[in-house]
Amino acid sequence: MRQLPKQLQGLRIPVVASPLFIISNPDLVIAQCKAGIVGSFPALNAREAAGEPIMLEAWLKRITEELDRHNQSNPDFPAAPFAVNQIVHRSNARLERDIEICHKWKVPIWITSLGARVEVNEAAHDCGGISLHDIINNRFARKAIEKGADGLIAVAAGAGGHAGAQSPLALISEIREWFNGPVLLSGAISTGRSILAAQAMGADLAYIGSPFIATEEANADQAYKQMIVESGAEDIVYSSLFTGVHGNYLKPSIIRAGMDPDNLETADASSMNFGEGRSKPKSWKEIWGAGQGIGAVKDVVPARALVDRLAQEYDAAKAEMREIVNG
Ligand SMILES: Cc1cc2nc3c(=O)[nH]c(=O)nc-3n(C[C@H](O)[C@H](O)[C@H](O)COP(=O)(O)O)c2cc1C
């Protein structure tokens, strides 16, 4: 067995809840961590109006203190650590400030997307944390490790948000030819059986996003949550139009916005903008992102109940697999 960094050990199930733009908030992160999996949020979700106290500080204070309190009263079932996602893209004008704040609060797990940078990894290490970088192919995976990331998040085909196009089987196999460190697999994982499948493929943990949109704590429109419940893999469209990078979206939300999901234009990466004055502010608000795994989501539930379901299914899948392995 590979030895994982201490931040990824001792989880109830081998799962990191992925950061979701707009949707992940302290309520969701705290519920995920208390349920025994790593919870996360994008730093950019914590926003304040000009002149107001820095929201990221307030979020980190609340999450840290609430999890500490929980751990003191539940020493036998402590909460899992949390992660903060940094969008490492030139249009993210807050990056330097957010790195400083995360360093000050000793964020235990740093997730970086859209760019691998040595100084972000150094900041994570300097405060005792680890960094995981998300990638969609083997070339980016090598670059991320060269720049000092501790682990990789392989974003395969079918993932919600900015997804890759490669089969998880191919992506993980290529990475495991040269990398023995922590690998998380992302893309349409929404059952306990799929978590075990990710491990069988060679990943250490599953990285799960879309199912958490349909939770009570998630900061998402009720109609969005309901659309996740009612949709399946065939309702997902892969398009670059909305952000300039290919991602997966709910077809009914595209139709509702007056577009033809079967005839979407393409956009190029130069249109990506994570700054304050986004050129397409509607893109993530009205066109709703989701991965292909949402067929397994049958109800809007508290995050705890979702983790309980995954844990029960994971245990059942392990028992089933033991029978197969033992003949
Ligand atoms: C609505 C939505 C928003 C997302 N926002 C972010 C983000 O801000 N940062 C990031 O690194 N990944 C983001 N992702 C990608 C997820 O972190 C993760 O890779 C993906 O959800 C995993 O696939 P799954 O949704 O099929 O579980 C987002 C995904 C969705 C569906």
Automatic annotation (TrEMBL):
Matches recorded under Pfam families: NMO
The enzyme's E.C. designation: 1.13.12.-
Keywords: Flavoprotein, FMN, Monooxygenase, Oxidoreductase
Gene Ontology molecular function terms on file: oxidoreductase activity
This protein's record includes keyword Oxidoreductase: yes
Highest taxon of source: Bacteria
Family stated for the protein in its record: Belongs to the nitronate monooxygenase family. NMO class I subfamily.
Listed name of the protein: NAD(P)H-dependent flavin oxidoreductase
Organism: Seohaeicola saemankumensis
